[in-house]
Amino acid sequence: MTLDAELLEILVCPNDRGDVEYLESEQVIVCQTCGYRYPVRDDIPVMLIDEAEKPPQQKNKRSK
Length: 64
Hints:
Elements: H1 5-10, E1 20-23, E2 28-31, E3 37-41, E4 44-45
Antiparallel strand pairs: 1-2, 2-3, 3-4
């Protein structure tokens, strides 16, 4: 079973209000701006920041 298209249209990332994309094969919803990955369990999106997989931290490189 897949997520309802109307639901996907209104969902936004609770972290930064960015647009999201549903990756059905991985059962996750991914924010296009911050990269947070929200699980989909039993066809229900779990849009909680505490449940999200955060993207890896990038180290800042300073050039001198």
